[in-house]
Amino acid sequence: MTKAIFLDFYGTVVHEDDAYIDMLCKRIASTASVPAVSSEIGRFWWKRFCGKCAEAYGERFQTQRALEIEALHETLASVQSPENPDELAGILFEHWMKPGLFEDSEAFFRQTQLPVYILSNIDRSDLIAATRSCGLALEGDRLITSEDVRSYKPRQEMFAEALRRSGVKPHEALHVGDSLANDVGGARMAGIPVVWINRKQKRLPPDCRPDRVISRLTELLEPQ
């Protein structure tokens, strides 16, 4: 029996920053001295950022904002673009603090009877600002961020902290997220049942096994 729901935030509850990333990559490509298409720039940027997150834990932890700027510096250098990484990152940070809420997310929070905990790789101040911007009245202990545990999903620290705060056992929780690596993979390692929210109708890889696949959060309210 499920006693608590753990939710990823960006891409699950609110819109991800994909449109902003795409716009910034096109801007970088237009000013680069080394010819590159925006999709290549995006892949390089994402790979560098993910690599930094994977290495940032414990004493080596850095905030997501700091890692984003580092990854941007390296991305701009790779194509010799004169763009200012702080300026570009500022555009992303503004979205992080004021993301758009999915319509079904509002309905889900209004109707669910279970305690909900947000598990996000974002910085704590950004998550607090974002939840307030979206009108989500979540108490402080219901928000669990990378800063709180000094590591990023799919590492286990965040899932362990969510279990500690909620007071439930792994099989009594349900984690919902849009990332196959961070959410599905991370929850699996923690022994927590996991739902993949597939808002973009992506194909599920054969080696990835969530317990359930949904396209909107309100499906969690429907009887199975």
From TrEMBL:
Domain of life where this protein originates: Bacteria
Annotated InterPro entries: HAD-SF_hydro_IA (IPR006439), S-2-haloacid_dehalogenase (IPR051540)
Keyword tags: Hydrolase
A molecular function GO annotation: hydrolase activity
NCBIfam families: HAD-SF-IA-v1, HAD-SF-IA-v3
PANTHER family given in the database record: HALOACID DEHALOGENASE, TYPE II (AFU_ORTHOLOGUE AFUA_2G07750)-RELATED, HYDROLASE, HALOACID DELAHOGENASE-RELATED
Name of protein: HAD family hydrolase
Source species taxonomy: Bacteria, Bacillati, Bacillota, Bacilli, Bacillales
